[in-house]
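Lecture notes, unit on protein representations.

Consider one protein chain, 425 amino acids long.
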Amino acid sequence: MTRIIAIASGKGGVGKTSLAANLGVALAKMGKRVLVVDTDLQMANLGLMLGMEGRPITLQDVLAGEASLADAIYDGPGGIRFVPAGLSIEKFRRVDDEKLADVIKELAEQADIVLLDTAAGIGNDVLASLHGATEVLVVTMAESIAVADALKLIMIAERRLGLDITGVVVEMYKDMKQEMTSKEIQKALQTEVLAVIPEDPQFRECSLEGTPVVLKHPTSLGGTAVINLAAKLIGAPPPMIEAKKPGLLDAILGLLRPKKRRDLTGTKKAPKQEKPKPAPKKEEAKPPAPAPKEEAKPPAPKPPAAKAPTPAAKAPAEAAKAPTPAAKAPTGAAKAPTGATPTPAAKAPTGATPTPAAKAPTGGTPTTAAKTPTGGTPTGVPPSSSGTGSPGASAPGASSPGTGPAGASLLGGVSKEKRAEDQKA
């Protein structure tokens, strides 16, 4: 009877897909007809682990009724056969999950062991895969969260679907104090722990390259653990394989080994054609460099022109040239000749009151009290030298009223014609 083993996990990222690929190759090496099916219709990562990505016909085409099941089976590495899941989102939308269980049972006729790589969790696609399985191999990590998710999966598979739980596989064990031991995990899940696969850099290296570790490094820690698990599943004695720990030399060679780049699209790229190298250009004779031009020096700035004198400076000079009104005024009337009839005193200018000369008393010195005209200089007639004389006569050398400097100030407003008439009179 064909065994249909669903390799499932409650939590994602625990190494479920890499275990399915390597376990299938290990069982095929032990003489079993193995068919590995990628039932993770959403992610479809099993083809990358086996280096078989980009196949034209996939499980989505079969579930959509667009291809037959025989056309979706391919020969894989290590003697296995493989049914891939496609990466097309359009094809995924046309998939009928209810047909998955019937397709899986149809595959059972073509193999001794069918391994189902299911999606993580307990979604509808996972339940559809479990409906077509006969037993479940639970994968977890030595972490409390992963163990708790594994417990949920076991409860659904046993109580709801009535499936047998083959056992538990602990992946990527680091032997840290914070991790749960195999005994603690077994007690929490109430299920036997069949294998503990340690953290192995060679295991991860092969997963990135798309090569099963049991083919490239069968004696590595991870490869040995998977081979022993395969023997336990079929009840065969474990092969005499001594696990080889990677030493310092292996670590250095692993770093120096060139990495293979993978094309995830599945299409082969044409080799790049080398472009012909252009012929070297002939060096052209360069023209002689022109002589440097002397820059014209700018002309020296001209000294600023003398500024013209300001009107304020000119004003004092003009004022100095102009004669003052006082300078133009006559200094006084001409002196009367000796023996001539004395001329009467000139009339005071308008607005000024003339002051008559006071008569001197006989035998005494005549004194006159000079009245100060309004706005003018006080004027008076000095006494004659003999003490006698006609009133109003001027002594020689004495200024007549209105003719001296004081008279000039009083007669400044009298015209020349008026003075001439007075002199004739």
